[in-house]
Write a structure and sequence with these properties.
six-stranded mixed sheet; 25% strand; ten-stranded mixed sheet; Creatine Amidinohydrolase, Chain A, domain 1; 390 residues
């Protein structure tokens, strides 16, 4: 893979085209029309709330509320804190950026009062807290929660979005390649994360996740990557499974891989990974337009017939949220059985094969694009189990 470069100097930010942003707003307003809503409130806080950047190009920081009334040309973007307003003004597209005041939702509620109409039907998207919903209702708003509708809008990616997804996948590849090259006996889990991040932060990437499971192959005690790093350090004879997503401005890739440390896999881990690889091949072969969630779920039978089970979901839609189809394994309740794949969707195929007692497990998989003829790998990293520390 070629060397990654950072954004061009001069203070510019990556942007989508005017036609792409118009496409999004047209789709959003169509959903509001279907719901009979007078206005839209897209809310986010603590870097969560994907619809705010999707419609404004402002990544949520502390808190952001995007308010758009039907028929208005310029939505208002209320931002917390005051010192974030300058950056939001430079980055946000087609919005009037304002400080959110002492309390952002109180400011939004006051803005609704300025509409001059009581009983505004407000379409709400994002993690609005119950206290905020109460304030808006007190201000006379009738709330209609539209998260499922807006989630559907994110399923099929535009060509411009796919360019950004490919960049996120490239950054993710770089992070895991750095781990494979640089991890040595004695490295802590935090240092594994530093290796991964060091490969893409300088190129403008950000961390969506990097999760690790480090345990002994001969006395295993972990079945899946953990969300927070422990203070355990790599030892000869360990196994490391990981889940890594580097993001390009909200468009991440995702890789799942398993490595042994300093020596080949034990028979148990070889068997676990062989089954995981076979499940990945069976699942990915089904990724094509027209495939249903129930057809994807059938691949779990291969894992169960080998005497193993799963902990993580087998498949999930990705980029723009944790999206349908979510296909769990391990006998858990299935979701999205009737969901049908379409060209332009992106999803992660990730069989996490574990022992019945939950003491050992492996992870493999990656982000795929559904194409007219089947699917495309978005990552270039070699598949299979690797060895660290050599």
């Amino acid at each position: 893979m070629g060397e990654l470069s950072a954004r061009e100097p001069g203070g510019a930010y990556p942007r989508f085209s005017a036609s792409e942003m118009a496409r999004r707003w047209e789709a959003a307003r169509a959903e509001l029309d279907r719901a009979g809503a007078d206005a839209l409130l897209a809310y986010g806080a603590e870097r969560v709330g994907a619809v705010v950047p999707w419609l404004s190009e402002w990544p949520v920081t502390r808190e952001a509320a995007l308010l758009s009334r039907i028929g208005e040309e310029r939505p208002r973007l209320f931002v917390q804190f005051a010192n974030h307003v300058d950056n939001a003004t430079r980055m946000a597209t087609g919005c009037e950026v304002r400080w959110g005041g002492d309390a952002t939702i109180e400011t939004v509620a006051a803005e609704l009062g300025a509409f001059g109409k009581r009983g505004v039907r407000l379409g709400v998207v994002g993690p609005l807290p119950a206290s905020g919903a109460g304030l808006l209702r007190t201000a006379g708003a009738e709330l209609v929660f539209l998260d499922p509708a807006f989630q559907r809008l994110r399923l099929v990616k535009s060509q411009e979005e796919l360019e950004w997804v490919r960049r996120g996948a490239e950054l993710t590849d770089a992070g895991l390649e750095a781990l494979a090259r640089g991890a040595q006996v004695g490295a802590s889990e935090a240092e594994l994360g530093a290796l991964v991040e060091g490969a893409y932060v300088g190129a403008g990437g950000t961390t969506h996740i990097h999760y690790f499971a480090v345990t002994s192959m001969r006395e295993p005690s972990m079945r899946a990557p953990a969300q927070w790093p422990a203070d355990r350090c790599l030892r000869e004879g360990d196994v490391v499974s990981c889940e890594v997503s580097a993001s390009w401005w909200g468009y991440p890739g995702q890789l799942l891989r398993t490595f042994t440390v300093g020596e080949p896999p034990t028979p148990l881990y070889r068997d676990l990974h062989d089954v995981a690889s076979a499940a990945y091949e069976e699942l990915s072969a089904k990724v094509a337009p027209g495939t249903t969630g129930s057809e994807l779920a059938d691949a779990a039978r291969l894992i169960e017939s080998a005497g193993f089970t799963t902990c993580d979901d087998l498949v999930h839609g990705f980029v723009g949220g944790y999206l349908p189809p979510v296909v769990p394994g391990g006998g858990r309740t299935r979701r999205h059985d009737d969901f049908v794949l379409e060209e332009g969707m992106t999803l992660v195929v990730q069989p996490n094969v574990v022992t019945g007692d939950g003491s050992a497990g492996v992870q493999t998989g990656e982000l795929l694009l559904v194409t007219a003829r089947g699917h495309e790998r978005l990552h270039r990293l070699r598949q299979g189990m690797g060895v660290l520390g050599r």
